[in-house]
Write a structure and sequence with these properties.
The complex is a heterodimer of chains A (130) and B (120). Chain A has 4 helices and 5 strands, in the order βααββααββ. With 130 residues, chain A is of the alpha+beta class. Chain A is globular and about 40 Å long. Chain B has helices at 24-41, 58-73, 85-94, 107-113, and strands spanning 7-10, 13-17, 45-49, 77-81, 102-104. The longest helix of chain B has 18 residues, at 24-41. The N and C termini of chain B lie far apart (43 Å). The chains are: A alpha+beta (130), B alpha/beta (120).
Chain lengths: 130, 120
Amino acid sequence: MTSCRILADGDVVVARQMARKRAGELGFSRVDQALIATAISELARNIVHYAKSGHIEITEVNRGRRFGLQVVASDQGPGIADIDLAMTDGYSTGNSLGLGLPGTRRLVDEFDIESIPGRGLTVTFIKWKP
Amino acid sequence: MNRRVPILRQGQTLIASVKDAVSDQEMRDLQARLLSDVVNTGASGAIIYVSALDVLDSFGSRMLSDIAGAIRLRGARTVIVGIQPEMALSMVLLGLSMGLVETALDLDAGLEILGHGVRL
C-alpha cells in the first residue's frame, strides 16, 4: 500500500505522480496511467478545497482473475449531504466547474462514495487492468 | 516550491512552456504573469505549451480557459499547444472540451494560427 497525506495544493501533484508511478510499475497503459492520475488529482483537490486535509491510499486489488488498482481518498471534512446531487453534472458548492465527482467517475471502472455529513467523506475507485 | 513557468517572446507572440507538474499556485501565477506580460509587451498572441504537463484536470483546464478568455478581452489570441492524446481523453471524459479556446498540435501550427508562421 502506498499512502499520501493531502494538506496543500502541492500534495495534489505529489499524489497523482505517486499514483502514475505505481500504475506504470504495475503495467497499466499510458492512457490508464493518465486517467488514474487525473482522477486522483480531482479527488485530492476536493480534499484541499473542502476538507483542508485528508489521505490518499493506493492499493493493488484482486477479484477473481482480475487485477486492478484501488484508490481511497478520505477526509474528515464536512462531507456531502446529498450524494446524488453531488454526482450530478454541473453541480458544485465550491465555486468550481462542478464536474469533479461525476467527471471523475467516468475516468475509472468502479466508483463509490460514502459520507457522513459533518464527519467526512470517503471516495473509493478501482481501475481494472485490461 | 517556486518553479515559475518561463514566458518567452517570439516577435508579437508570447510563449509559456509549462513543465511536467504544475501546482495550482504555479498555475495561478502563470495566469497573472501571462496576462500582465500581454498587456506590458503589447503582444498580439500567446501560446501555452502544455506538452510536458502530466495532468490537465478540471482546475488546470479552467485556468487555461480563463487565461485565454482574459487575453481575448485584451484583443489578443491564445493557442493551447501540445495536449497529449491521453490527456485529451481524460479531459473529454471529465466533460472538459476547452470550449472556444484554440488548440494546435505543435508549436509550428500554433504560430501559424497566430499568423507568425515561418515563411520560406
